[in-house]
Amino acid sequence: MKILKKILIVVSTTIIFSSWILSSSNAFECNIPILESSSDAVKAYYIPENKFAGQFINVPKENVENEIDKACREKFEELSGAKVNMIVFPKQKDMLDAINLALATKSGEFDAMTSGAGGAKEYGLGGHLNPLPQPPDLDDFYTGDINQYSIGGELMGIPSIADTNILYWRTDLFEEAGLDPTKPPKTYTELTEYAKLLTIDKNGKNSTEEGFDKNNIEIYGFGFKGEASLASPWEWYNYLFAFGGDLFDSEYNIVIDSPESIASLQWVVDNYRVHNIMPADTPVYDYGAFHTLFIQGKMAMAVNWPYMYGMSQDPEQSNVVGKVAVGRKPMEVRHAGNMGGWSWSVLKMSKKQELASAYAKWNGNPDLASYQALIRGNAPARISITELMVKEKPIIAGAIAKNLPDTMGVKWLDAGPSWMSLEKETWKFIQYALTGVKTPEQAVKDAKVEMEKILKRDRFYEEIVPQLLVN
Amino acid sequence: MNSGEKKLVTISWIILSVSLLIWLFPIIWFLLASFKNPRNLYDIFSFEFSLYNYYEVFNTYPIATYMKNSLILAVLACLFAVTIGTLIAYGLSHTRFRFKTQTTIFIFLIRLIPGMAVMVPLFIIFSSLGLTNTYPGLIIAHTSMSIPLVVIIMLGYLSDFPKELLDAAYIDGCNRFSVIFLIVFPLIKPGLAVVAIFTFIGSWNNFDISLILGYMPEYKTLPVGLAGMGNKYGILWHHIAAAGAVYIVPTVIMAIALSKYVISGLTAGAIKG
Amino acid sequence: MRFINNSNLFGATLIIPGVLLLSLFYLYPLLYSLYISLHDFRLIRPDLTEFVGFRNYFEIFLDEEFLNAFFNTLIYVGIALPFELVIGLFLALALDKITRGKNVIRAFLIVPQFLAPLAMGFIWKFMYNDDLGIINFFLRYVGIERPPLWIADPAISLYSCIIVEIWACVPIFMLLLSAGLTTLSSEIIDAAKIDGANAYHRFRYIILPHLKPIILVTLLIRGMDSFRIFDLIYGLTQGGPAMSSDVLSLYMYRSGMLDRQFGFAASAGWIMVFMMLIASYILIKVMYRDGINKQ
Lengths: 471, 273, 295
Prior knowledge:
- The complex is a heterotrimer.
- Chain A has 20 helices and 14 strands.
- Chain A is of the alpha+beta class.
- Chain A is globular and about 75 Å long.
- Chain A starts with a helix and ends with a helix.
- The mean pLDDT of chain A is 87.
- By secondary structure, chain B is mainly α.
- Chain B folds into two domains: 3-34; 52-272, MetI-like (MetI-like fold), CATH 1.10.3720.
- Helices cover 77% and strands 0% of the residues of chain B.
- Chain B has helices spanning 3-34, 52-60, 63-94, 100-112, 115-128, 135-159, 163-171, 176-187, 189-205, 208-213, 222-227, 237-272.
- The longest helix of chain B is centred in the last third of the chain and has 36 residues, at 237-272.
- Chain B is flat.
- The relative contact order of chain B is 0.13.
- Chain C is mostly helical.
- Chain C has two domains: 1-27, no CATH class; 63-287, MetI-like (MetI-like fold), CATH 1.10.3720.10.
- Chain C contains 13 helices and two strands, in the order H-H-E-E-H-H-H-H-H-H-H-H-H-H-H.
- In chain C, helix 4 (64-97) crosses helix 12 (248-258), helix 10 runs antiparallel to helix 13 (262-287) and helix 12 packs antiparallel against helix 13.
- The longest helix of chain C is centred in the N-terminal third of the chain and has 34 residues, at 64-97.
- Chains B and C meet through helix 1, helix 3, helix 4, helix 5 and helix 6 of B and helix 2, helix 4, helix 5, helix 6 and helix 8 of C.
C-alpha cells in the first residue's frame, strides 16, 4: 500500500508538473499593422481608447481560447487598460445555455458575446442586444454576412469569421478510377455517378461492377453527417439550396415540401440507401466521425467546412497528405450553399456598455480577421483579407473564394427564438428519411405540420415577421 | 475441500477472469490508443508509440487546474457527505425522531429529481447568494448531491444492527455520542468504505451541476473540461483518448490503494460480527 | 431510562443540520419546478407566462416525442436492472469463493466506474463504429459478413445503449453485494453445511435473505439513476437515430433548453418523480411481503 501511495504521488506530480511546463509556451503576438496603416475613421472605430483602467467585462466563449484569441485579447487589454474575463464553455450549446440563464435571471453577468451564424439576429430579435454603430469600412464586409447579422438595417453583430462549405476530393482515387483529378463533378447528379465509381470494396471492385460486395467496402465515394444535431441540417442546406429549394419563401411561409426541396432530400437518401456510396453508420455521423473517416483516407469526396483541409495536410493526423484537392461545390439547378460564420455583439444586460461595445468592435478589426483566416484557416470575413489569403494560401483560399459568392442565408435563423426548435424538426425528418422509417415526402410533410405549430406557439407571424419584413 | 467445492472455486476463477477481460478491455484499449498517433489510432494492429496526443492535450487545455479542482471537490464532498449522511441515517434508524417518515420521503424525493428540472432555480439561488464560481459554493453543491445516496445506503447497513450491543454500551455508561463513534462507526466500516467510494466517484464524474455552478476557467472540473475537447465542430477523439487516460490513471491507483482499506474494514467487520 | 425520553431531541440534532443544508439547496428548486410545471412558462418572455393548472401534465401525454421517450425509458430500465442484478450477483458470489487476490480483482472491476458517463459514451461510440470501431472489426474477423449497425440502426440503438449501461453498472452491484456477503458470518454457513445443505439451498435460504436489504437498496438507487440517464446516451447516440434511443431526461433537456417549453419540461420531471415513487413503493412492498419492516 505504501508503494502504491508513492506511485500515486509520483504520477500526479509528474502530470501536474509537465502540464505546467508544456502550457507555458506561447509565442504569438497580436500586432495590428493593417489597422495602423488605415484611415483615422477606421482606427477610431476599432481601436479602444485607453480610458477603461480598472474596469472589466465578462465574455462567454465556446470550445477553447486558442493562442490567437488569447494574444489579441491581451492586446485589447493593453490598449484599453481594462480586463477581459474570457469564460470558456465546452460547447456552443453550453455557452448559449449559460447566456440564456443569465438573461432569464437578469444577472447581468455577461457583457459582450460571440455567436455563430445568425446568432446575432436571434438574440437581437429577442431584444437582448444593443446595435453596433456602422463600421466606416462597411463595404469590406460581405453583404450576405452583414445581412444575416442585421435587423431593420441596424447591425447587431460584427462579423469576425465567415464560413461556407467547400468540396473536397481525393486526386489519387480519381486517377485510379480513371477520372480527371482536375475536374471535380459539376452537378450533384454527376457527383453520384462519380461516387459510384469511387466506392471500392475490399476486392478492388467498384460499386457498378459485377460481384460488388457491399458488406465489405473499403472506400466510400461520398459521405453525409447524419447525426441528430445541427450537423445534418447544415450539410443538407447546401443540397437544398443547390436543388432550388428553400426553407421559407419571401413571405416566411414554410416551403420545405416543395418538389425541389424533397428532391434534394431524396438525393441524399438514395445515395445512402440505394447506391451504397455512404458509410453504413451515416445516421450517427457527427463532424468527428466524418472528418476522421476522410483523413483516414476512406472517403473519396466530401462537402464540409474549410477546417478539414488543414487537418488533412497534417502528417501527424492524416493518411492523405498531398492527395486532397478542394474547390467549388457542385450545382444542381443553381450554385448555392449555406453560410456560416461568427460575429460579436453587445448585450443589453451589460452594465459597461462602452467597454463591451469597444471589445465587440475590436473583434471585427481587419488584423484579427487576417489572423483568423491566414493562421487558423477560417474563411475570411472581409473581402480584402480574402485577397490576401488567396496570395498566401492559394489552395484553400481559392476554394473558399469560389464558394463564398454562392452563399445563401439559412432562414430558420430569422425565426429568432424558434430557431433551434425548427432545426430540431429538420434533423428529425432527415433522420426519418435516412433510416427509411418514413419516405422523404412523408417525413417532410409531417415536419411541416409540427413546425407550423411551433411558429404559432411562439407568435412568429404576429411579432417577428413584421420586424423582418421592414428590411 | 471436497471436489464439489473445488469445482465451484474453479468456475469462480473462470467467471472472474472473463469478467476482468470484459471490463478492462475498453479501458486498456483506449489507453493504448492514447499513445498512438492520431493517424494510426484506428488501425488495430499498428502500434507506434507517440506522445503527440498528450502534447496537444496539455498544450490546449489547463489539465492541471481541472484535476486539482476535481480532486479537491471529490475529497471534500466525500468527507462531508459521508459524515453528515451517516449521522442522518443513524438518526433515522436508531432514534425516535418525530419526523422520521417525512424526512425519509424528503431525502428520497431529492434523489429522484432529475437534474434538468432544477437547473434554472438552482442557478438562481446560487447566483443570488453569490456562490457561483466559488469553492464554497461548489463544495456545498457536491456535498448536497451525495448526501441522499449516503443516507439510503447506510440505512441498509445500519438496519440490521444488533441492538443488544448498543444497550450494553449504554449500561456501561457511554453517552449517546460516544456510542456512535466508538461502537457503531467501526462496525459499519464496510458500508462506510462503500459510500466513500461512491461519493468520490459521484463527485469526480459529475457534469451538469459542475457546469452550471463552475464555468469560469479556474473552477472547471475534469468532466466539464473533457466535454469541451474538440474543435468548434465536434469532438477530437485523440484528445479524448489522452485526456481520458489522464483522467483515469490516478483514480485507478487511488482505487487500488483505497480498496486495501476497504478489505481491512470488511474483514474487521466480519470477525467482530 | 432517562436518555431514551430525549431520543427525539438526539435524533433531531443528528438529522436537522443535514436536512437544513439539503432544504436550502433542494427545497426551493423542487417547489419552484412544481410552480413552473403549472404554468405555460416562458423564461425570457415573462409576459407570455400564464397559469394553466395541470394542463401541461395532460397535454404532454399527447406529445409523440414524450410518449416515445417514456416507453424507451421503461424498456431501458426494465432490461438493464435485472441483468445488472443477476450478473452482479454472480460476480459477487464468485468473488466470495476465491481466497487470494480478492481486493485486486475488485479494484480492477471498479475502474470503469471512474470514467465519467459522458466519456464512456464517446468511447463506446467509437467502439461501435462500423468502419473504425473494434467490435465490428472483430465480428468480421470471425466471419460475420454484415455485423449489426449498433448505433445507426434505429431498431437496435436503444439496446446498444443498454449494453453499455449494463457494462457500466454491474461493478456497482458487485461491490455492494460483495460487501453484503462479507458481513455474512461464516459460522452460519458452516452450520448449514454440516446440516447437509448443498450450495443451492445455502444460496436460497441463507445468502439471499441476508442480501435482501442490500439488493433492495441497490435496485432502488440504480433504478432511479438509470431512469434519469442522460450523459451516456447523449454521448452515444444523441437520442437518435430517428428518436429510437430517446429517453425522458433527453426529452426534458430538449423541451426545456431547446424548445424553451419549461412548463412541459418541468411537468415531465414531476411525472418521472411520481413514477419512480410508485415503482419504489411497489418494489419495497414486493421485497417485504412477509411483513418485516426494514427501512
